[in-house]
Every structure is written in C-alpha cells, then in structure tokens.
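Support request from a user on the community tier.

User writes: "When I paste my structure tokens into the form, the page sometimes reloads and wipes my input. The last time it worked, I copied everything first. Here is what I submitted, just in case something in the input itself triggers the reload:"
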C-alpha cells in the first residue's frame, strides 16, 4: 500500500494564530506530521510526504505546490495509470498530517478495512483519511468532503466502507482541538504543547486550555 501524507509546509495551521505565532505554528505542525509518520510506520507501512514546499523529515518528500485536491488526484491518476498497464491498482492511502491522535491501531483498522474506497470522516464533514482501491475514484476536499467522497465513489460504482474512529476524526485546527491533544495524545505534538507551556484548564465542568 502506498501511504501519502499531505503537508502544508508554508504558513501551516493559520487558524491557530490566536494561540501560536507563525514560528510556533511551524514547529507544532511539524511535530504532528512526525507523529503521523511514526504511526504509519508502526502500522506496518512506509509513508511518503506530499508537501507544498521542501520539509526535512524521516520520509521521502515530493513537493507539489498545488492545492490539496489536484495534488492528491495527481497521485491517484499515477496509480490509476499503473492499474491500466498491469490490471491491478496498488491501494493508495491518504492520511492528513494533523491527526495528532492517530495510533498504529487506528490506522491499521483503516488500512485493513475492505471496500473500494475506505473513508475515515473528520468532525464537521471533512475527510481525514482515505484508502482508494478504485482507479477511477478522485478526491474533492472542498466543503463537506465526506459526503462528496461518498457521492464520487457511488458515481464510479465503488463500494464504500466508513471507519468510525475518534482518533482519526480528530484533526487539529483550532484552540479547542489542542485540548484533545493534551487529553489523548502521547507523541511529539503533546510534548511540544507541554514544553510551550500549555496545560488543561477545567472551568465550570468544561475542559479548556491555558498557557503558563
């Protein structure tokens, strides 16, 4: 299985600008990426990074400065071309770089699930991870992409499997998402937050985040 991890190497995580400055967002995004790469490897696969600019990580890096949808579709088109030549498509998994809670076990469920298109939905209607075994399938990450991907699979006659996973559904984009990293994370991303002075704050029964 080919496992691709898209990464916005330039100005990542802008929605965290209320708690992190630009340099901090760079460091935190890189910590999450490295956690995802570790989880993929521990799940038995070798990841590759699809980045918008060069990035130094322990994995092969392909630079493609296009938006997410055309960049990922170029990977799928390449694999689809191989299927035309050989009669069989190597499955392609696409795992987002901000899944700081991802574990080898959660990714293993994704990779092992049957179906032509396997979808791990994110909160709010996004798509946090995919496995594609149908050469004609293409992604569209705009809007409610979970629904769009189910529709796209149906349009090409592909069987869809949905993987319901808290760890894969939690992508880290906002201040509130940092709470999940401190509560459930265990890798570089959590260590980065703790070193930067972040801690859980419980007020009136709600769990938030504070910075020392």
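"...and here is what came back when it finally went through:"
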């Amino acid at each position: 299985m080919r496992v691709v991890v898209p990464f916005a190497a330039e100005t990542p995580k802008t929605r965290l600008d209320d708690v992190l400055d630009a340099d901090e967002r760079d460091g935190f995004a890189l910590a999450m990426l490295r956690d995802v790469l570790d989880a993929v490897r521990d799940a038995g696969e070798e990841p590759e990074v699809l980045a918008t600019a060069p990035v130094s990580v322990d994995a092969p890096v392909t630079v493609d400065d296009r938006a997410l949808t055309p960049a990922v579709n170029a990977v799928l088109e390449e694999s689809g071309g191989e299927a035309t030549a050989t009669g069989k498509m190597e499955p392609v998994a696409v795992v987002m770089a901000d899944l700081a809670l991802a574990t080898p076990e959660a990714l293993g469920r994704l990779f092992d699930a049957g179906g032509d298109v396997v979808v791990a939905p994110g909160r709010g209607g996004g798509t946090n991870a995919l496995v594609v075994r149908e050469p004609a399938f293409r992604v569209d990450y705009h809007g409610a992409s979970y629904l769009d991907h189910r529709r796209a699979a149906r349009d090409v006659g592909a069987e869809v499997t949905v993987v319901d996973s808290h760890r894969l559904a939690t992508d880290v984009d906002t201040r509130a998402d940092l709470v999940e990293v401190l509560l459930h994370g265990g890798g570089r991303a959590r260590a980065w937050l703790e070193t930067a002075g972040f801690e859980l704050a419980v007020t009136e029964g709600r769990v938030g985040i504070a910075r020392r």
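Agent notes: The reload is a front-end session timeout and is unrelated to the input. Residues 14 and 21 are 9 Å apart (CA to CA). The chain has one domain: 2-172. Escalated to web team.
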